[in-house]
Specification:
246 residues; alpha+beta; Peptide Methionine Sulfoxide Reductase, Chain A; 6-stranded mixed beta sheet; two-stranded antiparallel ribbon; 10 strands; globular; L-methionine:thioredoxin-disulfide S-oxidoreductase activity
Length: 246
């Protein structure tokens, strides 16, 4: 397993000595690597809600999202009221390559993804997409989030049906037309893909490792931004995978 903490610290030290990197403060008080001369991360902000949404039904609904390292995506959505569970995993590729070691090669078509099960009477599909684009990741980056680079870290929505696909595509178009971001959105909608659950050691990672350098710098700020920008949707106690198993 790649140790993201060691990778982060080694990269900062090595690149900084070459004068190629700057530390940029982003929303929520976190830090992000910015290559000198490159594009800075988008400011974390609450973007407009979707004009159209998936119909509310009885029972739970699910969606699958990818926005960089699945630790932070999972960690943020676990704090959203109405979310029943958020599970780290892989989507976009085949069952045979749905492992951390193979996905990290960037050659499998998989993205690190999170399956979110939610109660639509408490929070809707469209509202979850609003949170996803506002505080969970930067949708203007191409195959990258923070220090993580590669197709496995792309911004993607994996619709589970035609209605989800339509709402997702319409929302991306809406945000583009409204100029919600200073750069174009590069979030793909990838239909017909299966979600595969990640290894046990990746589940609840942010909750279990709050002081790990990578988590502290890149993932915890997403939770703080959620609390600040979406106070009505924030809950203190996360919906942990460990609790579901129990």
């Amino acid at each position: 397993m790649k140790n993201r903490a060691k990778t982060l610290l080694a990269s900062i030290g090595a690149i900084a000595r070459l004068g190629l990197v700057a530390l940029a403060v982003i929303g929520g008080g976190g830090l992000a690597l910015k290559l000198n001369g490159g594009s800075p991360p988008e400011e974390t902000k609450r973007i407009p809600p979707a004009l159209h949404d998936v119909a509310v039904t009885s029972g739970t609904q699910s969606l699958v999202l990818a926005g960089g390292c699945f630790w932070g995506v999972q960690g943020a959505f676990q704090h959203v009221a109405g979310v029943v569970s958020a599970t780290a995993g892989y989507a976009g590729g085949s069952a045979a390559t749905a492992t951390y070691e193979m996905t990290e090669t960037g050659q499998t078509a998989h993205a690190e993804a999170v399956e979110i099960v939610f109660d639509p009477t408490q929070i809707t599909y469209g509202q979850l997409l609003q949170i996803f684009f506002s505080v969970v990741h930067d949708p203007t980056q191409v195959d990258q989030q923070g220090p993580d680079v590669g197709k496995q870290y792309r911004s993607a929505i994996f619709p589970l049906n035609d209605e989800q696909a339509k709402v997702a595509s319409d929302y991306i178009a809406q945000l583009g037309q409204e100029g919600a971001f200073s750069r174009p959105i590069h979030t793909s909608t990838e239909v017909g893909k299966t979600f595969y659950r990640a290894e046990a050691y990746h589940q609840d990672y942010v909750y279990n490792n709050p002081s790990q350098p990578y988590v502290y710098v890149y993932e915890q700020p997403k939770i703080e931004a959620l609390k600040r920008l979406f106070p009505a949707q924030y809950r203190e106690r996360p919906a942990l995978v460990a609790d579901q198993a129990g």
